[in-house]
Amino acid sequence: DTAVSQTPKYLVTQMGNDKSIKCEQNLGHDTMYWYKQDSKKFLKIMFSYNNKELIINETVPNRFSPKSPDKAHLNLHINSLELGDSAVYFCASSLLGDQPQHFGDGTRLSIL
Amino acid sequence: DQQVKQNSPSLSVQEGRISILNCDYTNSMFDYFLWYKKYPAEGPTFLISISSIKDKNEDGRFTVFLNKSAKHLSLHIVPSQPGDSAVYFCADSRKNLANTGNQFYFGTGTSLTVIP
Fold first, then answer.
1. pLDDT of amino acid A1
2. Is the pLDDT of residue A20 over 90?
3. What is the CATH number of the domain that holds A55?
4. How far is B14 from chain A, CA to nearest CA, in Å?
5. Which candidate from A56, A102, A105 shows the least CB-CB separation from B103?
6. pLDDT along chain B (116 residues), means of 10
7. Which of A91, B27, B69, B104 could serve as A104's disulfide partner, Cβ 3.0–4.6 Å?
8. Could you give the CA distance from residue A86 to residue B83 in angstroms, rounded to a whole number?
């Protein structure tokens, strides 16, 4: 039983396309996150949701739109993909916003 | 604006010896510090944490030390085992400016290889 699962694991697509990454957690956690790990291995927070409400929104282009239909799901939709969006995207969850996070295994996004 | 730095990208240690991983931070507002371990093709896994009111926390073979005056955090693994070979990330946390949640800042990781 995977605690935090994200799909797909790999995503290869053309520049300009729109794509979504899904994330689900079965831990009963209240807070969910999206992180981006770039080519320099720098893991940077993008968004944080608590009980379906956005609480952290870092300086991320508005082509990225998170959607939380319920507190167990936080999906990431990306419009008009650019070469610089190539990265590994990690979803995570925590019981509360100040607790250690449980991470998914990442989605490797490659833009051609 | 890298607020958390792990200056050693890699470290090799003989099995049975001590591994010491280091992390420096710039923001004195950080009040909670964590270490994560990451295997290839997997997400980071929480290892150990320390609050800013402490200077040491121990869990089995893993000990984290916090030196607030030097803004320095270290993870000691003793004895090191081959299964400890992974990338280790330190992360620091503080309330965000809007006080609506915690902001976590991660280092770029140190790849540890434990040689049998």
1. 63
2. yes
3. 2.60.40.10
4. 25
5. A56
6. 86 98 89 93 95 94 96 97 97 78 87 97
7. A91
8. 30
Q: Which of A101, A105, A108 to mutate to test the interface with B (most CBs of B within 10 A)?
A: A101
CATH topology of domain B4-115: Immunoglobulin-like (2.60.40)
> Minimal Cα distance from B41: which residue of A?
A105
Given 3-state DSSP classes, what are the helix, strand and coil percentages for chain B, each rounded to the nearest 5?
Answer: 5, 55, 40
Instruction: Chain A: give the shortest CA distance to residue B18, in Å.
Output: 25
Spatial separation of the C-alpha atoms in residues A73 and A32, rounded to whole Å: 8
Rounded-to-integer distance, Cα B48 and Cα B35, Å: 5
Work out how many domains chain A is built from and give that number. 1
DSSP letter at A100 equals P
Query: Residue A99 sits in which domain range?
Result: 4-111
> What residue spans of chain A are helical by DSSP H?
none
- For B80, residues 6+ apart whose C-beta sits below 8 A from its C-beta are B13, B14, B15, B16, B17, B18, B19, B112, B114
Structure-model confidence comparison of residues B86 and A43, the more confident one: B86
Query: Does A77 score more than 70 pLDDT?
Result: yes
Of A4, A43, A100, the CB nearest to B34: A100
More confident residue, A57 or A14: A14
